[in-house]
Amino acid sequence: MNSYIYLDHAASSPMNDKVIDAMTTAMQQVYGNASSIHGIGREARKYLDNARDILAQSIGAQPGEIIITSGGTEADNTAIFSTVYARAAEGKHIITTQIEHHAVLHTCEKLERDGFDVTYLPVDENGHVSVEDVRNALREDTILVTIMYGNNEVGTIQPIAEIGDLLREHKAIFHTDAVQAYGLESINVTDLHVDLLSVSAHKINGPKGIGFLYQKAGTPFTSYALGGAHEKKRRAGTENVPAVIGFATAVQIANELREEKRALYNRFKQIMLDVFTKENLAFHMNGDLENTLPHVINVSFSGMEVESFLVNLDMAGICVSSGSACTAGSIDPSHVLVAMFGQEAEELRNSIRFSFGQGLTEADVQHAAEKTAAIVKRLAKK
Amino acid sequence: MKETRDPSQIRVVVGMSGGVDSSVAAYLLKQQGYEVIGIFMKNWDDTDENGVCTATEDYDDVIKVCNQIGIPYYAVNFEKQYWDKVFTYFLEEYKAGRTPNPDVMCNKEIKFKAFLEHAMDLGADYLATGHYAQVDRSGDGEVKMLRGIDNNKDQTYFLNQLSQEQLSHVMFPIGHIEKKEVRKIAEEAGLATAKKKDSTGICFIGERNFKEFLSQFLPAQPGKMETMDGVVMGQHDGLMYYTLGQRHGLGIGGDGEPWFVLGKDLERNVLLVGQGFNNDSLFSTSLTAVKMSYTSTKKLPGKFSCTAKFRYRQTDTPVEVEILEDGRTHITFAEPVRAITPGQAVVLYDGEECIGGGTIDEVFKNNEKLTYVG
């Protein structure tokens, strides 16, 4: 493998060595089914409970409010489906935004086909949803509001606490997808007034295939993974104990290093912007430096075409993403950038997301920014 | 120009379709030591009602093969360019009563233009494809395009519009190999596409029914089928569904020789039909071509002799070429040729070299224009 500079931590992140150690030990020693009544099963249960405590504490929740899932997507799907089906008799209206992750958007679109009424709130040029818009969209029959915490493409942080406060007077359930924000933002579910909150492990140097959904005690809920009595009958399936242990270890590390990382990543952002400015590139940030995730920066470079841009960056050993999903050469312009700039904006074709994480140094970021600048200078069409 | 650099210093982008030919092209270049990058080009979205898209399956094959060979792979999308430059032309030609050749246009505008530019943007020295054709760089001056060794597979017919500038950046790594041998190389290398069926037909139509496909874009106007003498023989489904010399799908039974399409009367929306494969009305002796393009930049004499193909896989016919003052080109055949079809390509050869080609515009028999051929 060539030497790469990995600037795509928002897509997925390397596992921390301590996570790998904890999981390796667990895989070797903790093999029981946490639901079994015997000693080996009880041993697994002990580890599971301990891990669940750590997950719960990380957001100021109770252990019983944590539903372990296979990751962020399942947490989002579960939050939405189980809520609306539990509340379907009370109303058919859902409020979300145009910039949600597809795990939320596609779920809402399916519900529309099933007869629900969905309002997709717009955002401003910097990707912010207005609390006023939420207030105006609320109806008597609104049963769910789902708005992401921090955007995965441009980093914008939404006013979740204010929206939560607004919704205290309304029967609607409030869900937030915190997958991208969790770890770097300090999150407390009581302060936020959220009922449901989704988290994934692999974005914070934990294993893939594991996440959780916080479900505030008493929130109406219809389970759709049926089988055993796992997760208090909310999600059947034998718990993946080693992965949960790894997840909890990653959470502990993230909590310890939060402030240090936030400062470092904000420095990284500044380094990149300084290099682009110094090299006289025609560029601008998509989103702003206020209310944004420290590890995500999305930049539009005038005159660039994202397809050849990404390949050139890869050939230069720099791993980044664009907002567009690029499967078999099909380009779906980023719905987030469309929401911010409109259907015809040049940003849809020339924007790159850099995202930071474990192991990156200032020198790496400086080097990557310089290489990026060289590619832009070579290819940008005037 | 001759290539003097070591292959390891040369970056080659291979256009990979997910088929065996381009897989072997990439494999051979890698064996020869080039820095190879595989790129899948998506020109058409054929996602069906079940969400299945052949492009996704083909790209999966590209990924497998590239991982086997050990080269990086990417995808690029030219759907918009393809629609604007190839598909729009395709529909316009049908509307005008001609029979277009979208593969020629795709090579000219997409594969060896938009895609070539993309490859150059990636710092490539060459663009390679799995076409059965050869590029001769042995001379000191211009490069030449030669027929593929496999006579049955030679694809220079579709590449006739390539310019010297385009050719100078192109490699055809399997043009010197027979198709059988290409399959064998793929099998021996264990490539995932070794046994994959060859794609047939026009790329965006694929295996689908041509009539059904075209009817989604152009309204069909059914009309009468008549003999050259005006005897009504039945109904046609729309002139665009028929091509000169075609036998199948007419539905005229009865005694005697089988019936063939002889021409189209666009004004009256009548399909002209007649009996016999060698029906006299199907034969012509010369044509005029437009949009002639030559692989060499050198000025050609006003008149010259060479051979020509008027459709894919046809044997060559000796011809006399005369470049007319109005920019058109008159091409006279040594002997009458059957079913020359306006809109199709006429491609010129000097021995094994393909020297260029153009689009058939008008067709003549003994200097008299055949008005009924479209």
Walk me through the topology.
The complex is a heterodimer of chains A (382) and B (374).
Chain A: E1 5-6, H1 17-29, H2 39-57, E2 66-69, H3 72-87, E3 93-97, H4 102-113, E4 117-121, H5 131-137, E5 142-146, H6 160-167, E6 173-177, H7 189-192, E7 196-200, E8 211-215, H8 230-233, H9 241-278, E9 283-286, E10 296-301, H10 306-315, E11 318-319, E12 325-327, E13 330-332, H11 335-341, H12 347-350, E14 351-355, H13 362-379
Parallel strand pairs in A: 1-11, 3-4, 3-5, 5-6, 6-7
Antiparallel strand pairs in A: 2-8, 7-8, 9-10, 10-14, 12-13
Helix pairs in contact in A: 1-9, 2-9, 3-4, 9-13
Chain B: E1 11-16, H1 20-31, E2 35-42, H2 54-69, E3 73-77, H3 79-95, H4 102-121, E4 126-128, E5 133-136, E6 144-147, H5 164-167, E7 170-171, H6 179-188, H7 210-215, E8 223-227, E9 232-236, E10 259-265, E11 270-275, E12 283-294, E13 303-309, E14 317-323, E15 329-338, E16 345-350, E17 353-365, E18 368-369
Parallel strand pairs in B: 1-2, 1-4, 2-3, 4-7, 8-11
Antiparallel strand pairs in B: 5-6, 6-17, 8-9, 10-11, 12-15, 12-17, 13-14, 13-16, 14-15, 16-17, 17-18
Helix pairs in contact in B: 1-2, 1-6, 3-4
Strand line-up of the largest beta sheet of chain B: 12-15-14-13-16-17
Poorly predicted sequence stretches spanning 5 or more consecutive residues of chain A: none
Q: Could you tell me the strand content of chain A as a percent range?
A: 15-25%
Strand content of chain B: 25-35%
Distance between the termini of chain B: 42 Å
Shape of chain A: globular
Low-confidence stretches of chain B: none
Could you say which structural class the secondary elements and strand pairing of chain B correspond to? alpha+beta
Oligomer kind: heterodimer
Rg for CA atoms of chain A:
21 Å
- Secondary-structure element series of chain A: EHHEHEHEHEHEHEEHHEEHEEEHHEH
User: What is the general shape of chain B?
Assistant: globular
Largest sheet report of chain B = 6 strands, antiparallel, barrel
Structural class per helix/strand content of chain A?
Answer: alpha/beta
